[in-house]
Amino acid sequence: MNSQMSSAMSAQDPDTAPIEPLRDPYLLTPGPLTTDPSVKAAMLRDWGSWDSDFSEMTAGMRRSLLAMAGDGAGDYDCVPLQGSGTYCVEAMLASFVPRKGKALVLANGAYGLRAAEILRYLGRAAALIDKGDYLPPRGDEVAAALRADPAISHVVVIHCETSSGILNPIAEIAEAVHAAGKKLLIDSMSGFGALPLNVGTLPFTAMVSSANKCIEGVPGFGFLIAQKQELEAAAGQSHSLSLDVHAQWTYMNRTGLWRFTPPTHVVAGFIRALEMHAEEGGQPGRLARYTRNRDTLVVGMKRIGLETLLPDRWQSPIIVTFFNPADPAFRFGTFYDRMKDRGFVIYPGKLTVVDSFRIGCIGRIDHRIMERVVAATRDSLDEMGVVSASPPPEALAERARLTALDQHAAVN
Ligand SMILES: *Cc1c(COP(=O)(O)O)cnc(C)c1O
User: Fold this and answer.
1) What topology is assigned to 3-30+282-411 in CATH?
2) Start and end residues for every CATH 3.40.640.10 domain found in the chain
3) Ligand 1 centroid – CA 85 distance (Å)
4) How far apart are alpha carbons 231 and 78 in whole angstroms?
5) Domain limits, CATH 3.90.1150.10, in the chain
6) 20 to 30 Å CA-CA from 305: which of 41, 171, 296, 402?
């Protein structure tokens, strides 16, 4: 990665722009991810956490994120919080689900299950709809669950479940939650900034995301966007001092400061990443690039004989899960090393049932890099002596069975 990357990406004709020489490996992982050199350069200065310059940076960043969420009416506020994304999920659940409340968690992968686990730690009552690895929770199921259990006050949904790459249908889920008069909490960690999420069309109680996903900053903090009236109501609800969203919010609004030492350099890098996000055309521009990344990747990998876990209908433009080839010459560890030799760091699978690997489509990469990922995959498999990249027949049969089930559910 170098400065030629950013100039190539903003060039008039990206197809004819020169491909830059390879240096650090590309991170095809959904955060930390490959960042622009200018984001890294923005971190070279030291900032005082009490200085007014840094307070202005924080305030501007909060305004940009609220604008990205479409908060024209000023009903919402943005609360940044130190830590990785999970700290923010935990802060959201502890602050917004009342101690006497009950949450319905919609899970179809590791991050949904993690939200349920957090609620267990917090001692909050919770119900779980677990769809396994492949299938989205649907609006009608949520409506039925809410009818069956009036004690449920909040519904927790993962926007893009990064463990498989499935894009959950949050619009129909939000509709079901709204119709039942319940509150919606969204983990849009790997979606916000690329997938549309607008409070004007999809009102939610609160959502969380983090610096190192689709906005393409480096890891170190996350942020919540929440209704102001819910932020008010969150007073005294958190079990945790450092994860208390209401306390962070009121302190920040009163003083302009973070409650405890902020990741100053990370914030500076993130502000540069926000500028680049705007230059690219905001959320629609970013979505267009990621979509082209995914399409280039999926078409190329299928040409080699690899198969995706998900049917196209549910495949997000964020990360793609491929079944491991059934060929006995395939070993994930060797494949990983061969890909790294070629300049690409890939991601192991996170499924419970079948063996798989994942390739992220996010970060400072474009479709030309994705063509090279496909070529590197072909060369790596050749080098390992993998003759066929096809998955085991059981994996495809399982996918077909569940896809049929899902279509059945959709018509009913
Ligand atoms: C990345 C991510 C998180 C947070 O993970 P951390 O490792 O704590 O940053 C939570 N939910 C989803 C859907 C994610 O993609």
Assistant:
1) Aspartate Aminotransferase, domain 1 (3.90.1150)
2) 37-278
3) 5
4) 10
5) 3-30+282-411
6) 402
CATH for 37-278, options being 3.20.20.150, 3.60.15.10, 3.40.640.10, 3.90.1150.10? 3.40.640.10
Beginning with the edge strand found earlier in the chain, give each strand of the sheet holding 183-187 in spatial order.
76-82, 221-227, 206-210, 183-187, 154-158, 102-107, 125-130
DSSP letters spanning 138-189: -HHHHHHHHHH-TT--EEEEESEETTTTEE--HHHHHHHHHHTT-EEEEE-T
Q: How far is the CA of 37 from the centre of ligand 1 (A)?
A: 24
Going residue by residue through the chain (412 aa), what tens digit of pLDDT does each one get?
Answer: 344 444 444 444 555 554 454 578 999 998 899 999 999 999 999 999 999 999 999 999 999 999 999 998 899 999 999 999 999 999 999 999 999 999 999 999 999 999 999 999 999 999 999 999 889 999 999 999 999 999 999 999 999 999 999 999 999 999 999 999 999 999 999 999 999 999 999 989 999 999 999 999 999 999 999 999 999 999 999 999 999 999 999 999 999 999 999 999 999 999 999 999 999 999 999 999 999 999 999 999 999 999 999 988 899 999 999 999 999 999 999 999 999 999 999 999 987 778 999 999 999 999 999 999 999 999 999 999 999 999 999 999 988 887 787 766 554 3
Q: Considering only CA atoms, which residue is closest to atom 3 of ligand 1?
A: 85
